[in-house]
Amino acid sequence: MSNAETAPNGKPDSETKANNFVRTIIEEDLARNKYQGRVVTRFPPEPNGYLHIGHAKSICLNFGLAQEFNGQCHLRFDDTNPTKEDIEYVHSIQQDIKWLGFDWQPNLFHASQYFEQFYEKAVFLIKKGKAYVCSLNEEEIREYRGTVTEPGKPSPYRARSVEQNLDLFQRMRNGEFEDGTHVLRANIDMAAANMKMRDPLLYRIRHAHHYKTGDAWCIYPMYDFAHPLSDAFENITHSICTLEFENNRELYDWVVAECETEAVPRQYEFARLNLTNMIMSKRKLLRLVNEGLVEGWDDPRMPTIAGFRRRGYTPESIRNFCDMIGVAKANSTVDLGQLEFSVRDDLNFKVPRVLAVAKPLKVVIENYEEGKEENIEGSLYPHDVPLEGSRTIPFSREIYIDRDDFMLEPPKKFFRLAPGREVRLRHAYIIKCEHVVQDPETGQITELRCSYDPNTLGKTPTDRKVKGTIQWVSAAHAVPATLRFYDRLFTMERPDLAEGEFTQYLNPHSLDLAEGFVEPWAATREPGTRFQFERIGFFIRDTKDGRDVHPVFNRIVGLRDSWAKQSEPKSESQPAKTKATPKAPAPAKPAVKRDPLADKSPEMAAAFKRLKETHAELGDNDLDVLTTDAARVAFFDAALAELDDAKLIAKWMNNEMARELKENGWGALKATGPQLAQLLILRNKGTISATIAKDVLADMLVSGTDPQKIVAAKGLEQVSDSGALEAVIDDVMTANQAEVDRFRNGEKKLMGFFVGQAMKATKGKANPKMINQLIQKKLNG
RNA sequence: UGGGGAGUCGCCAAGCGGCAAGGCUACGGUUUUUGGUACCGUCAUUCGAGGGUUCGAAUCCUUCCUCCCCAACCA
């Protein structure tokens, strides 16, 4: 990779990306030349809300995969519901995707642009008898649909003639009917086990203004109709969506097949992203906005892209986070800390360090000349960040330090200021606390009187060790600023699972304000500039507020703080860390033993009993599987006639054949019972190894060839000649010297490794028992 | 309960019959004019549970358990 993009940490992107199942599918498709080498994905948001971090995961996946395989990713607005969608959202969505660093190039689409084609496909289905106009009302449709356990019943309108349907559907389009009076439905199966297949709705009447098509239409297609067709029209190869659409896939495939589109896209589903201490549902985010619980979609506490942008997160950090968490099918909730890690990891190498004080405490340096000022040159980056730059920092007799950096009675490992103690001022002198000025009434510390060591500017004293370094600003030069400390929005790890209103778990300290000071240089920077305020955290100058003389800085993310960690455990009132268990975990029920006869047909139950009597050596478990269907029983009986070993035959049928026949079923198998028996006889005689026997079985099952012929044709006889095997083992040992040493040093689990290598070297033909013995002997000898 | 999915460390997540990857977190240590960063080290005899097949099982067979999704004219 010559033009390899580098991730923030300097490692090439490709190395930071974990493999995932979607990528694997694409690679396989490419290898089989399934789409002539094309990879076309799409990101299909409905413009009814702002994009959030969960969408970012999908965006990174879809655009990232397209990029990686030199394909395309389409941006398609899935705008089939005029009552919910708005142009404001299409703008924000485009802005957010661009900001994240992705480009749809010319491939910007709207489902609404296909309305005419959808209509034509609907007419096509009607003509095929695969769709009909249903005039049941909403409630009736629900009733007719049945439940998950009971089949539905056909709509009385299902039998309408093609002509009637065509006429009605045309008139629906013409606007002759009120909302809700008719719908177009697919004609599939009202008894389908998959609820999505019970004559799903394809079109509904909506006399509503569409932000894109205006009043041209009063019928609008449903997602399940529009989505697969849009994918097909755009030649999408891999249509990647979230897990809750798994049930829709059967319908997706039905629509594509019945509409007879040229392209046949495939849908794949992955788990959506959840974050701890956060909610991700659009509905709930909308509520936070509408109820004024946050300041808008771009409130820096929101998990929206717009919120993160204003908070100061970088696109790189979000992309890197998405790569880091992977893509899989298991529901999961990622720790917010992982996102924060990503942000720090990125900012650490990019952002200038400056001095700021959040909770000011005045310090007067008594032995520093009054009225004197010094300009200290301070580098903007620490020694380990390969960036250059510096600014001057004014120093004078009166400065501010952070209240947290002073303690009257310091605990053991407190390295900062305390009465009589010394501390280094970052970039400047070492000072010593001489007196503490307190309010006589409240005891409040109002001021510190210190002395400084003039010989410590840029120098480290050799006679003593000063461990702490703190930030400061010159009082006369400091610029007052508002520091906004953002924290997690919810106190509970899983507010989405919690009982009751999710709003009751809002963190009252998700935003804390501090009036502090920043050094002059920092205040000259433009809104949108990111810094590290040394020892406090990463901040961004807000882009909306404080654009004038009194700047406002948002804390992007705090620094890791091992001092806080070790000094904190006593204070239990840390709302952000509350680990409330949302639901009591249900006690695991003990495993129930199933009655093998309970759900068998009378014939199979009879077979079960018959075999149990004639072959006592078979366990209930074996019999249970054997008597799953008549084909198996017949196969078993035929094999038994040839080889009188019920136990062996059952073993092979139940373990090995079961796997091979899982997909195509026992009805379609080519091999016969006697052939299985022949194979087992070969095995019993030691002619072939167990590994080879399985291979032969697989071959036999699809070809119907006699096992002897397969073995002879391919030369699969077992190798039991100890001389030959020893040679193989010698080769393995010389090729894996390191493992040999480890084994001799006690890593006995490597035994399997050596056997495996030897078996592979002989393509499975070696006698594994002999291999085991020989290796044992050689390795220990 | 019918159907569709998923269970590997505190949190993500590789692995697809032959040595349980990696990241985050946590915990030690080194360096440090940021208690930051960087660097080094530790952290799963075990993969939801039982039974079985195999020389060998997280991976194959089987039974069970738990969780998620589906009964919007939303997407």
UniProtKB/TrEMBL annotation:
Keywords from the named record: Aminoacyl-tRNA synthetase, ATP-binding, Cytoplasm, Ligase, Nucleotide-binding, Protein biosynthesis
Short motif ('KMSKS' region): ranges: 279-283
Presence of the UniProt keyword Nucleotide-binding in the record: yes
Cited InterPro entries: aa-tRNA-synth_I_CS (IPR001412), Asn/Gln_amidotransferase (IPR018027), Asn/Gln_tRNA_amidoTrase-B-like (IPR003789), GatB_Yqey_C_2 (IPR023168), Gln-tRNA-synth (IPR004514), Gln/Glu-tRNA_Ligase (IPR050132), Gln_tRNA_ligase_bac (IPR022861), Glu/Gln-tRNA-synth (IPR000924)
GO molecular function: ATP binding; carbon-nitrogen ligase activity, with glutamine as amido-N-donor; glutamine-tRNA ligase activity
Compartment(s) of residence: Cytoplasm
Asn/Gln amidotransferase domain sequence ranges: 634-779
Enzyme Commission designation: 6.1.1.18
Region Disordered: start-end pairs: 564-599
Chief location category: cytoplasm
Leading EC class: ligase
UniProt binding sites for L-glutamine: 78, 223
Short motif 'HIGH' region, span: 45-55
GO biological process, one term: glutamyl-tRNA aminoacylation
Residues binding ATP, per UniProt: 46-48, 52-58, 242, 272-273, 280-282
Catalytically driven reaction(s): L-aspartyl-tRNA(Asn) + L-glutamine + ATP + H2O = L-asparaginyl-tRNA(Asn) + L-glutamate + ADP + phosphate + 2 H(+); L-glutamyl-tRNA(Gln) + L-glutamine + ATP + H2O = L-glutaminyl-tRNA(Gln) + L-glutamate + ADP + phosphate + H(+); tRNA(Gln) + L-glutamine + ATP = L-glutaminyl-tRNA(Gln) + AMP + diphosphate
GO cellular component: cytosol
HAMAP family: Gln_tRNA_synth
Family: Belongs to the GatB/GatE family. GatB subfamily. Belongs to the class-I aminoacyl-tRNA synthetase family.
Function: Allows the formation of correctly charged Asn-tRNA(Asn) or Gln-tRNA(Gln) through the transamidation of misacylated Asp-tRNA(Asn) or Glu-tRNA(Gln) in organisms which lack either or both of asparaginyl-tRNA or glutaminyl-tRNA synthetases. The reaction takes place in the presence of glutamine and ATP through an activated phospho-Asp-tRNA(Asn) or phospho-Glu-tRNA(Gln).
Subunit structure: Heterotrimer of A, B and C subunits. Monomer.
Name the record gives this protein: Glutamine--tRNA ligase
Native species: Acanthopleuribacter pedis
Species lineage: Bacteria, Pseudomonadati, Acidobacteriota, Holophagae, Acanthopleuribacterales
Gene name as annotated: glnS
